[in-house]
Amino acid sequence: EDSHNTLLCTGLVELLLYEISISNNNNWSNKVDKIRIHLIRINQLDFFYYTSWLRQNFDFCMNREYHKMKSRKLLLSNKKIV
Predict the structure, then answer these.
(1) CB 82 within 8 A of CB 74
(2) Contacts (Cβ under 8 Å, ≥6 apart) of 65
(3) What is the Cα–Cα distance from 50 to 57, expressed in whole angstroms?
(4) Is there a contact between 31 and 20 (Cβ–Cβ < 8 Å)?
(5) Which top-level group of life is the source organism from (predicted)?
């Protein structure tokens, strides 16, 4: 169960990193809101379990992976992907 949760958290963080890396603005809260809305839209299609889990555990994932994500953001910036 924990490895499953870690995988889902990692997937969410990867999505966030991708969204941030292709965005020119650094408005973090705005980005998070857009991703939440996007997950809700996906949920309305077919992926109820996956997206509902992500929404329910969004803050947990962000807190758990935040430091990794910060370092990855810096790495992305250094490679001029941002």
Answers:
(1) no
(2) 9, 10, 12, 13
(3) 11
(4) yes
(5) Bacteria
**How confident is the model at residue 75, as a pLDDT?**
46
Tokens at residue 22, please? 């292709």
CA angle 75, 35, 78 (to 5 degrees): 10
**Nearest in space to 35 (alpha carbons), one of 23, 49, 48, 46:** 23
The pLDDT of residue 28: 64
Look up residue 44 and give its DSSP letter.
T
Q: Per residue in 7-50, pLDDT tens? A: 556 666 666 666 666 665 566 667 667 766 665 554 444 344 55
Q: How far apart are CA 61 and CA 7, in angstroms?
A: 10
Whether pTM exceeds 0.70: no
